[in-house]
């Protein structure tokens, strides 16, 4: 049973910049740079027939390429931090693409996404990291000059059930070329 999600790949030059921010945070499990991505819609563990249906509707998306801007680091989890992420500015084209993917997935019978879309690239998953350690890490490494890339396609990723994320496999890609 495949575990699927749609997302944007992060270009290798930006992945290198983000990977330079690794280290210096107790309790962090750092994501391998080749697995950096921006999740658009988590699909989950589904059967083969559902996976084929999803793959068949994704080419219907007809959108133009758009710029994606990464700006600074933050954490998710509030008082119990669970991840360090590179923040992504929620531009109109990005939010509209995500919303269209959400509509298509619901038409395919998936439940609505349970969380509000907050675009980001996960750099580390945290286990037993203190607020103090995360705040210190972010104060030292949390700022970096904005990085911009043009999203020219989105992809259907698969992953195996694992702890910490990855490895991710591109099952198919869909050009943004309206």
TrEMBL record:
- Pinpoint motif HXTX 1 by residue range: 37-40
Catalyzed chemical reaction(s): a 3'-end 2',3'-cyclophospho-ribonucleotide-RNA + H2O = a 3'-end 2'-phospho-ribonucleotide-RNA + H(+)
Q: Which residues are catalytic?
A: 37 (proton donor), 120 (proton acceptor)
Tell me the keywords, alphabetical order: Hydrolase, Ligase
Looking at the record's lineage, which domain of life comes first? Bacteria
Q: What is its EC number?
A: 3.1.4.58
GO molecular function terms noted in the UniProt entry: 2',3'-cyclic-nucleotide 3'-phosphodiesterase activity; ligase activity; RNA 2',3'-cyclic 3'-phosphodiesterase activity
Coiled coil feature spans:
none
Keyword Ligase found:
yes
User: What Pfam families is this protein classified in?
Assistant: 2_5_RNA_ligase2
Q: Where can the motif HXTX 2 be found? A: 120-123
Family of the protein in this entry: Belongs to the 2H phosphoesterase superfamily. ThpR family.
Function description: Hydrolyzes RNA 2',3'-cyclic phosphodiester to an RNA 2'-phosphomonoester.
PANTHER family, from UniProt? Answer: RNA 2',3'-CYCLIC PHOSPHODIESTERASE
Q: Name it.
A: RNA 2',3'-cyclic phosphodiesterase
Annotated source species: Nitrobacter vulgaris
């Amino acid at each position: 049973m495949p575990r699927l999600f749609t997302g944007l790949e992060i270009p290798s030059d930006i992945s290198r910049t983000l990977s330079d921010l690794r280290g210096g945070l107790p309790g962090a499990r750092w994501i391998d740079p080749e697995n950096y991505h921006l999740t658009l819609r988590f699909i989950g563990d589904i059967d083969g027939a559902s996976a084929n249906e999803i793959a068949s509707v994704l080419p219907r998306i007809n959108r133009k390429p758009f710029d994606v801007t990464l700006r600074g680091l933050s954490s998710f989890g509030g008082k119990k931090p669970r991840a360090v992420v590179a923040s992504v500015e929620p531009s109109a084209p990005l939010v509209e693409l995500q919303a269209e993917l959400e509509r298509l997935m619901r038409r395919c019978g998936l439940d609505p996404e349970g969380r509000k879309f907050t675009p980001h690239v996960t750099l580390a998953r945290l286990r037993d990291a203190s607020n103090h350690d995360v705040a210190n890490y972010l104060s030292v490494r949390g700022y970096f000059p904005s990085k911009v890339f043009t999203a020219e396609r989105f992809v259907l990723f698969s992953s195996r059930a694992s702890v910490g994320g990855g490895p991710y496999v591109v099952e198919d890609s869909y050009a943004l070329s309206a």
